[in-house]
Amino acid sequence: MPDIIQLHPGTADAQATAPALHAKDKESFDQLKAELINQFKTSFPDRLASKTVVVIPSLTLDHTILSKVKGHVFYEERLLCLLMLLRMPRTRVIYVTSVPIDPAIIDYYLHLLPGITGYHARQRLTLLSCFDASSVALTEKILQRPRLIQRIRNLIDPHSPAHITCFNVTEYEQSLALQLQIPLYGCDPALNYLGTKSACRKLFKSLHILTPDGFEDVKNKEEVIDCLTLLKQQKPDLKKAVIKMNDGFSGEGNAVFSYNGAPDNEHLRSWISEHMNDQLKIVAAKLSSDLFFKKFEQMEGIVEEFIDAATITSPSVQCRIDPLGAITVLSTHDQMLGGEDNQIFLGATFPADKAYAREIGKLGHLISEGLKLEGVIGRFGVDFITAKEGDAYKHYAIEINLRKGGTTHPYLMLQFLTEGDYDPDKGEYFMPDGKKRYYFATDNLQRDCYKGLTPHDLIDIAMLNGLHYSNAMEEGVMFHLISALSQFGKVGLVSIGSTPERAVEFYNKVVQVLNDECE
């Protein structure tokens, strides 16, 4: 995964440019939220209802870090799975990106629509671009282009419902919704603080859900040193601790401190202070200790124990609170982590291990109930660290991501392709005919030798080698992040199979074929 740190709109850097919400705007935004509730009662469940979905796949994140993400604009293609909404014959989709998307990629998605011709779908799809590949977040680019906003406004049918869906919701997305006068389907940015690492720990503890020992609301480097000292004194056998910025993203914004060589006496604090630079491993590449703590002071954060056991897994639960207040456990995954001390999200298998999928689903539902009381709506994910002790599992809740995440688009793709649902009581995914499906998904299949492969090349290779998803077999591979391949040698995919082993086989075949093609 890329080096990304999310900057909470309430922090100092964000306040300089984030649009302020006046009382009149707050009233207008609340009215739009009420309109979304009405839509969810009427047009959302009606497959034949006329509606418009405006997709803004913006990663509205810190500019400094976003500028270091290789091919960050191509991550906007992860929500192309939402083109599958065009399977509803009276639904219109407006999809806005920083740079234009190759028509071959759009055709790649549209030809899989069940019961809808590509021509019919294309008439209801509008692709718009800012023609701007800079590190500024997409939503900010749109707000800087009033003519583009007017074009979007002109494309929305005033006589049928419309809403915006996006990756994460900040004051920028809120401002765009107000200018378009259509509701956002996502968490109100006023509640984004609930997704900070500190607020998550407080919520977990209030719900009596296990979370690693540690401290929240840590403000600066000196307090980090104090907390590291206290944690080691409380747990003398502790080998490592994790320092996390409140708004870190995909593990970026984390650092791991090793107590190797630390004294067990009154000199502990001074030792930690003196050895901070050489004992601290920062996850984000090319982020110095000074810059890390500078950003930490802007965001604040937590210090907690590093969970260690003979068998450790990293499951996650994806949940949704709809505008009517209904809670759904959408999926469970086992995350594949990499980087320093396995702090970076690389990919995931679906569903999570059956030994504990139901348990973490129940925990996800309980956390959803806590968030519902705070007024949260939309999709979000909860990450865990699971330690196996004997035949039992201990699930430590780690964080809540109040946004779409790395497991959102693979699951949506599976659901759109197979019309099935995840059953949290059984920990399995079932299609309408009762058959099960599994997948392996990644955003990070990367080899330097893949550089130079264009979208047309990838699609051709997939067709010639039988890699493409088959509607008849309901198995195969769907690629995403396709535009990133030529320049950065990186592509994402979801590999769907009738068994977990089949899903991995498809993935391994993709790797083998691409490697052979690049020799």
Can you describe this structure?
The chain has 519 residues and is α+β, with helices and mostly antiparallel strands. Among the domains are: 12-185, no CATH class; 213-305, no CATH class; 437-519, TATA-Binding Protein (2-Layer Sandwich). Helix content is 34%, strand content 25%. The chain has helices spanning 12-15, 23-41, 63-66, 103-110, 118-122, 138-143, 146-155, 171-180, 197-206, 221-234, 268-274, 276-279, 289-299, 357-374, 408-418, 455-464, 484-488, 500-518; strands at 51-56, 91-97, 125-129, 162-166, 214-218, 240-249, 252-258, 280-282, 301-305, 312-313, 315-321, 327-338, 344-350, 378-389, 392-401, 421-423, 428-430, 438-446, 476-480, 490-497. The strands form 4 sheets. Strands 10, 11, 12, 13, 14, 15, 18, 19 and 20 form a 9-stranded antiparallel sheet that branches. A hairpin with a 2-residue loop joins strand 6 and strand 7. Helix 10 crosses helix 11 (268-274). The longest helix has 19 residues, at 23-41. The protein is globular, with a radius of gyration of 23 Å. Mean pLDDT is 90; it is low at 1-18.
